Automatic annotation (TrEMBL), chain A:
This is Amino acid ABC transporter permease. It is a multi-pass membrane protein. GO terms for molecular function: transmembrane transporter activity. The keyword Transcription regulation does not apply. It is found in: Cell inner membrane; Cell membrane. GO terms for biological process: amino acid transport. Pfam families: BPD_transp_1 (PF00528).
From TrEMBL, chain B:
Keywords: ATP-binding, Nucleotide-binding, Transport. Residues 6-240 form the ABC transporter domain. This is Amino acid ABC transporter ATP-binding protein. It comes from the Bacteria. CDD domains: ABC_HisP_GlnQ (cd03262). Belongs to the ABC transporter superfamily. It holds the Pfam family ABC_tran. SUPFAM superfamilies: P-loop containing nucleoside triphosphate hydrolases. One of its GO terms (molecular function) is ATP binding. SMART domains: AAA (SM00382).
């Protein structure tokens, strides 16, 4: 039954990396929308919104991502949806990313001096205009480096989707390893692919951080 | 409708348990120039910040150009369009050029087309004597220039009332005059102004009335001559003694 580790296996693993990217992209963009809502709620005037957002963040930061995956995966059938690993992984990772990005961006919004909001209010700018044109553009400068940093975590986090049977990079490795039993070779290849995805992003994050620091001390 | 630009009646403001404004009654006529002074922490900033509701009040009424601030609806937005404010720390938007700082609010809240907003902005930048800085970012300007941009930015909304909160306190001494001159210009054109400042020269030159605050109360108010030459309240005498 055990066969050689061939170029077809490498191709299989590399193509599966596509799903890692797709899953990361879904979670990141979904999380960006959710995270923005969470961050705005956290810094809003409404006590109820602030509480709800804080609770959401605590729940998702205080439990393992794997448990969140399991709960969503098995929860899908409870609410009458088909058990689909991609759907479950996408939903769970989006919620997870919303909580973390929400927390990062809340910090960035609060880092904008209160005088900016006051000046914008004094000019009669609406909440929306204040956020869109005054606060968020400034918060974004603070937030980009940690956001890219989180994206790296997220890409690595998608590997947990293998456990609910979604064939992304890690699970592709497991499948090939089961057939070839060359764990070092197989998982070495898998690790190199993760590294190739994450390393440039880590560099980018570090680059942005130094640029940020220089901009602040200017 | 009234002849008064601002009417404050029995206004009380608390920060938690701290009573920051105590039964403030103040009426400001159209075109009137008022200077507010008093020791640090006496409630001067708080008072003028209630006029455009940067601070909410516990009780009392505030009418600005006949519009009741606390009556809800879009009254606050209406009042803020009519009331310009200049802060001690300038509070320019650092990610926007001087011109963008000046056109943002007119375009967004007054829905004025860009070309017109830019023309207005250049007009006011001319008036505060820095038309050549329009394309620069705030960080590239001196403190005095930044504060003049802040004044121009407020004027671009064509306000009927201007509030100044210690506009020269954060400036190097050599830049104070350029900002005060701009304010004097404005006063001479008939703008209704409330200025929190310790620049007593300015108060003598332009104020119709000077108000002294202490511990959240308006303790004394008078025309500049009487205010400076024959103060009645002990605390005011003390305060003026320290300034001299
Ligand atoms: N946001 C705030 N929270 C709590 N206390 C405040 C706040 N703002 C001002 N105060 C207090 O209210 C008092 C009046 O402040 P302020 O109006 O800024 O005084 P002034 O401008 O005359 O120096 C001070 O004792 C100050 O500590
Ligand atoms: Mg003050």
């Amino acid at each position: 039954m055990i066969r050689e580790f061939s170029s077809a296996d490498i191709l299989f693993i590399v193509t599966a990396a596509r799903w890692t990217l797709i899953l990361s992209a879904i979670a990141f963009f979904g999380g960006a929308i959710g995270g923005l809502l969470i961050a705005l709620s956290r810094s809003s005037h409404s006590v109820l919104l602030r509480r709800l957002a804080a609770w959401f963040i605590q729940v998702f930061q205080g439990t393992p991502l794997l448990m969140q995956l399991f709960l969503v995966y098995f929860g899908l059938s409870v609410v009458g949806l088909p058990i689909d690993p991609l759907l479950a992984a996408a939903v769970a990772l989006t919620l997870h990313a919303s909580a973390y990005l929400g927390e990062i961006w809340r910090g960035a919004i609060e880092a904008v001096p209160s005088g900016q909001t006051e000046a914008a209010k004094a000019l009669s700018l609406s909440y929306r205009d204040r956020m869109q044109h005054v606060i968020l553009p400034q918060a974004m400068r603070v937030a980009t480096a940690p956001t890219v940093g989180f994206l790296v975590q997220l890409i690595k986090g998608t590997s947990l989707a293998s456990i609910i049977g979604f064939t992304e990079l890690t699970r592709a490795g497991q499948i090939v390893n089961n057939a070839t039993f060359k764990p070092f070779l197989v998982f070495g290849t898998v690790a190199i692919l993760y590294f190739a995805l994450c390393w440039p992003l880590s560099l980018l994050a570090r680059h942005m951080e130094t640029r940020m620091r220089r901009a602040i001390t200017r | 409708m009234t002849d008064s630009a601002i009417i404050m009646r029995a206004v009380n403001k608390f920060y938690g348990d701290f009573h920051a404004l105590v039964d403030i009654d103040l009426t400001v006529g159209r075109g009137e120039r008022i200077v507010i002074c008093g020791p640090s922490g006496s409630g001067k900033s708080t008072l003028i910040r209630t006029i455009n509701q940067l601070e909410e009040i516990r009780s009392g009424t505030i009418l600005v150009d006949g519009v009741e601030l606390t009556a809800g609806g879009d009254n606050v937005a209406k009042v803020r369009q009519d009331v310009g404010m200049v802060f001690q720390s300038f509070n320019l938007f650092p990610h926007m050029t001087v011109l963008e700082n000046c056109t943002l609010a007119p375009m967004k809240t007054r829905k004025i087309p860009r070309a017109e907003a830019e023309a207005t902005a250049r007009h006011y930048l001319e008036r505060v004597k820095i038309p050549e800085q329009a394309e620069k970012y705030p960080a590239q300007l001196s403190g005095g220039q930044q504060q003049r941009v802040a004044i121009a930015r407020a004027l671009c909304m064509k306000p009927r009332i201007m509030l100044f909160d210690e506009p020269t306190s954060a400036l190097d001494p050599e830049m104070v005059k350029e900002v005060l001159d701009t304010m004097i210009d404005l006063a001479q054109e008939g703008m209704t102004m409330i200025c929190v400042t310790h620049e007593m020269e300015f108060a003598r030159a332009v104020a119709d009335r000077v108000i002294f605050m202490d511990k959240g109360l308006i303790v004394e108010e008078n025309a500049p001559e009487a205010f400076f030459n024959s103060p009645k309240n002990e605390r005011l005498k003390n305060f003026l003694g320290q300034l001299a």
